[in-house]
Structure formats: C-alpha cells, structure tokens
Design brief:
single chain; alpha+beta; Nuclear Transport Factor 2, Chain: A; 6-stranded mixed beta sheet
Length: 190
C-alpha cells in the first residue's frame, strides 16, 4: 500500500503531461476521454459568474474535449511539474497561432506565447477531477498590440476625443449686433 501511495504523485504527473502533450500540443482532443472524470470542477478567474470564480463550476468532460479541439495548431512546452498527494501543478508555455489577418497585423507576428500554471486534482481512479487555471492574461493583451505603438494609443484617442467632443460641444456665439468695433474706436477717449 505504501508503494502505491508514493507512486501516485508520479502517476498523476504522467497523466497531466499526457494531457498537454497529446490533447493540446499533439492535436488529439479525444484523449481527454481517458484523462478526465465524467464531470470535473473548473476554477477560472475569467468566469463571468463571481460564485463560479470562487467555488468553481461543474462541467462535463466534453467541454474539455471541445477546448482542446479549438486549440488545433497550438504547440507549447512544459517547463516543470510539482506533485503532492492528489494534486499536480504544471507550469507550461502555450504557443497559440493567430488565425485572423487582423490578429496577425495587430500583434505583428503569427503566434503569441502565454504562460500558464494549472493545478489538477485527481480522483481515486487517477482521473482529473478539478482544475485551477492561472494564465498571464495581461501578457496576451500586450502581445496583441503592434510593437511600440501602444505607447501612443492614449495620446491618439485623447486627441480624437477632444476633436470630436469639441466639434459637438462648441458653443455657438451670437453674431455681433452690428459691425465689430474697430481698434481706433476702442482707443478713443469720450
């Protein structure tokens, strides 16, 4: 019994590694059927529901298969894994292709790289039962800007807003009731 408990973290690391290498990097999304529990709990900081962000959201395994399908063309690498008990933490780099012409133009490249840390909790059958996602979302935003131009975005939009706002908010001044006074008339003493 002691040997199997000690071997569990290493076995869990192998399952997690298989998930990344086959489902995400190897374009084999159906491998998720072997690796995930029928339902799992997903903790994602970008979930629109605050309760789901704090407590997690129960999802069917099919959602993870669909996510892997959407990432066809992605590659990456695993930097390291740490396992303890029924949990495995993996730090990996996701190299995501930019498919749209606008995305490639905005980023000035064909792919972006995203640092991700995920924690998996395994159930008694050795399947992934819970996931905590931690992505470098700010890094995504920074990579999706044309290099160097983002420094000028604020100035550009500020000038644009001033021009448009000034045009619509300009006060109409009433016309002079007569001809404007000349400089010689205004300097004359009564």
């Amino acid at each position: 019994m002691v040997a199997s408990v000690a071997a569990a973290p290493e076995a869990h690391k192998a399952v997690a590694r298989r998930f990344y290498e086959e489902a995400w990097f190897g374009q084999k999304p159906n491998v998720v059927e072997d690796l995930f529990a029928a339902e799992y709990i997903n903790h994602d900081p970008r979930d629109p529901d605050p309760k789901a962000r704090s407590e997690g959201r129960k999802l069917p395994r099919s959602t993870q298969i669909e996510l892997a399908r959407q990432q066809i063309g992605s590659t990456g690498r695993i930097d390291f894994q740490v396992a303890e008990g029924d949990r495995v933490t993996t730090r990996w780099i996701w190299s995501m292709p930019l498919n749209g012409a606008w995305e490639r133009l905005a980023a000035g490249k064909d792919r972006i790289e995203i640092a991700v840390v995920q924690v998996f909790r395994f159930d008694g059958d050795g399947r992934i039962a819970e996931v905590w996602n931690h992505r470098d979302d700010r890094g995504i935003d920074e990579q999706m800007r044309v290099s160097g131009l983002y420094y000028f975005e604020g100035v550009f939009f500020g000038v644009l807003l001033a021009l448009v706002g000034g045009r619509f908010l300009r006060r109409k001044t009433p016309p002079w009731p007569g001809p404007p006074p000349s400089a010689s008339q205004s300097n004359a003493t009564p």
